[in-house]
Known about the structure:
The chain is α/β, with parallel strands linked by helices. Among the domains are: about 1-40, no CATH class; about 295-450, no CATH class. The protein has 14 helices and 18 strands. α5 (about 85-95) packs parallel to α6 (about 115-120).
Amino acid sequence: MSIIPGLNDDCVIRTLHFMDTSSLSSMAATSRAALLLARPLLVRDVCLESDAQATSFLIMVIIHSLEHAMRTLCLAIGNGIHATPWPVLLGDVLTRTPRLTRLELWPPRRYPRSIFDSLVNYTPTLTQLCIQSLDIEGATALQSVRGLSSVSLGMDIQRVGRGEYAAMSRMVSAIITGRGNADTLQDVTLFSTINSSAIQTGEVRFIGGGAVCPRVARLTIHHISFDLADVARCFPNVQRLETCQSLAPVDSLDEGVPWPKLTTLVAPQSLVVPMLAHSDCPLLRCLVVRTHYLDLDLRINETLDGVRVFDSIQELSLAIPARDPDVGVRDSAAAFLWQVLGSVPNVQKLDLSVNFERAELVNLASLTPDTKPRSYTLDELAYLSLTIDVRQNAEDIQDFAAIWFTSCPNLTHIRLHAIPDEYRWKRHAAAFEGGSLLNIAVASHCHNSMLTTIDDEVSAFGSRYPDL
């Protein structure tokens, strides 16, 4: 008898393949026959969030010989506990996973050598690998891994002796640039655990070594030193480059480095300013300027000087000062806003945050397009986001949205994050009696204390922990 009345066995199996985990679990509880059919599907794509879950899952896989059914496995456990059996169990399971294509290991811990040996020798279809805590033994073992398309590696320099930083850097760099992966990688993320002394001296760094990875389109480097010219040579076709606010030194900033395919740059001002001034980025359309929320030296004039050179920028995210530090003007945010709008005439998506220092001086009404005669147009603007660390009264908030919608004919989305409250408006056309069309703005409100930035093309492994 079929476990789904009216369907033959072939149709049942096809139907089960389209069910989500919750539906499969419910189906498996109906009968032993259903359990036998559903069990392999329940281990296809799994994300485990505790040590206990990981241990129980891997034991179940071993008992029922389900290794061949596994496709993607994510262990997003956070710190967890170190005296847990699942790392050893995982090393055993990986020796029998011929169809595994993606593995994510997020816990910061020292992994047994068996895991890395299994990844090299027993996972022929593995193309996506994320290991957020890699020591020198693991980096050595992964030298022979091949065929990766996406990789995210975190150098755990807390577990490496000071004299081994250079060797660790070379080994991790070689995983990226070696013959096994250089021709297949498309998405690369490299970072190190934060250690101020090691980062500042530049001992932890990426080394291209003359290799070329022609297919890499997305590159993220956090808390690791690198030479900008070396990176450009190693990844000549990169489309999205991301670095973070870090003490790690970057070399060759003043050289004219070509970036022929670069469309998205996410970087601190210390990198953005010289890069816009000296580098060739003909296709740059999205610029996200990373700023620490307490950074007083925003260098906004230098940033805008560089932005004005690129008429193609359509998406811009940056912080503006609440007051001008040079002249001490109160509520100078509006003046900086007009400078921003005049610098990117073709901007379609604009994400601004008012620097937290003295943000209470800012009058929200001044951050609207009607405050002074302007020499710019806002016809292209479709999305506006403003973050300010000051509560606002309801009347000012509604006036803010109304004025922006009136001034910008193509503006459809507004987001105002007056921490901790977030307000959103979405404008759309609605038909009324008589065939007339009116623009209606639908508002929503929620509580949100988290800082966010403009949406852009992220890497294959979005960070689960903001501090990484």
